[in-house]
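[INFO] parsing input record for Neurochondrin
[DEBUG] input buffer:
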Amino acid sequence: MASDSGNGHATLKRCLGVLRDAKNDSEQFAALLLVTKAVRAGEVDAKTRRQIFDAIGFTFPTRLLLSRQPPAGCPPHTFRALGLTLLACFCTDPELAGHSQILNKIPTFNDVLLSPCDPDSTSMVDDVYQCLSAILATARGARALVTKGTVSALCQAYLNSGHGSDRARTLLVGLLAIAEAKCWQKDAPQLLAVLSKLSSDFLKAEDMTKFELCEVLPHFIPLSPPLTESSQGCECLSRLYKGLAEVLGSKLSQSQRDPALKLAGSLVQACGAEWIPAGSAGSKFLALLVNLACVEVRLSLEEPDPLEVEGKKEVVTACYVLMEMGIQECLREENPLLENVQKMQLMRIMEEAFGAVIFYLRQVKQEELQDPFIFASVRVLGAWMAEETSSLKQEICELLPFLVDYARKLFKEGSPAVSPPQAELDSTEGPALPQDALRFLLPGFCHLTAEDRPRDILISAGAPALLCEYFLQQWEVLTSESTAPEPLTSTEMSLQTTCGVFLNLVVTAPDLVRRDKTFSSLMDVLLKSLPLLLPQKHHLVLAANVATLGLMMARILSGSAALQGTRSAKEFFGAAIRFLSQAHTAQADPSSDGLALAVSPAYLSAWDDISELWFLGMQALAGCIPLFPWLPHAALQAGWLEGLAQLLSRVSPASVDLELVTAFQAVLVELARASEQCRDVILSHQGTEWANLYGMAALEQCLAEQGGASSTLGGK
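[DEBUG] output buffer:
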């Protein structure tokens, strides 16, 4: 046998010599046939492969691919087949597979896949798949394949069900795993056609193929564009729902249930609950899904050595996605999919599952913190804490120091932890971004800082300093983003929620604000950020949060150097006064011929989110006026006093509710007490009359007292 192999190598060597020295095409062709025969027989090792490449390079295979004149008596594609065999041989060397000469041949490879395949040309198709697989494995490969049209060619090859179509599907799975967004951006109709075929096969299958397709299908369910936007996408979702309902309603083994749960998780990740139809069958299916997910989480996480089994973390992560949907659906009041009885049952079942998540997280070791599964577990617990504050309180309080430490570690280290399937890793678009654990924990922290025990634990764990650093970082991200109006970003949402946490601390722990330097640093950021935010009307809710938090903190930190009439302090208070003063206007009252007080058009769409902040801001501003002697002048400069006096004298008092009257009066009284000039402006605009009309007794008294004091001084 050794001698046969030796003879083969000797023949190959002679052929390579002939290839180098051939004087005409027929000699070269004869030698080439022997070389490609050896290549196809698998007799070529890495060293010999390199010798073949050194002998002929890329030039010769390129000539073969372009040649349209086969030798006498040979099939028309003979030269092309030989060229492809040589390229497939070269592609087994990763260095050559990523060479520009190979990447330039991608359109040719696509053509072969799209050409009719007769029995004589199957080897060409096999060689093309070998080349494409090798290209995909290189650094630049995925990008080149997407831009040069291979996704479309592979889709067509799979849909044609010709020779090697399974390999086309495997390559598509590989490409989507690396560059899902780019693939769907460029070739959505073709990928949708593949998903259509896969979903039909899934619904029809009655054997193990059904469970094999459960493994494949998640790769073809895009996060964008939403499948619900097209009729073809909706048909796919309908088939997948029916197929999954059939599968999950049957008695299953673990190996059958796991892929079904992963498919359900990927559908929820992409479409929420929109793929589940309304009605009795849909609500039963949704309840079953969440129930199965909770059981799986408990079985997996309550074990002494959880998640030892290969692939189990992916299944539990998919179950987390289903549980998160369960929380949202249990809280949904408009067109709910679930009935109230189902909601109550599911909340009890989810509580037990979240108990298992907490049990698991309490056992996590320091060296495991980079595991993406820990991130997924913290994220789903954050979703529970955001909505369900009374349940598992004791357990959550005990876990808080770990959650703060974990969030701090990821924040400080810019950890590359990624949570599949909740984050797409697109290696053609740079490295994965650090994961933001705080973003998912903030809503829960906001609830917890309103209560004594959890607040004390969060303060002891150093949460305020971490949140201040986080606020600063998120502010920098926001200011680097486009200034054009756009949907609320996660950055803006995180900043708003962080303000909510700080507002709770300011109200419930003012001594902490006074002594902790963190809050002085935060005050500096707020002073600078509000004047930039306020002119951008699409940031009104965030501006309301920043203005109110800044005003409330200024009351506590009134002695700090940053607030002693500095430029940044004056700009901040000027912006805060503009925010407060522009919230209301006079408009025609339909019930009478007069005018009524109304929320300004610019504030109307956000008023539900900011009205409480506006009232708090008014209260805080009233508290700041006696502390900062320069503030009344700022109010005069802004023209607020004249504007408010005119507004109140024009509108019907019946249109101004008591809460508003109280808010306006508090600020007006403080301004009148602090500044003679302010009092004079109020009096000159019939202040005494409208104060009486609105029942502002404190303002009436203040104006009378100040007026009396002034007359006495004048008399003396």
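[INFO] The longest strand covers residues 584-588.
[INFO] shutting down worker
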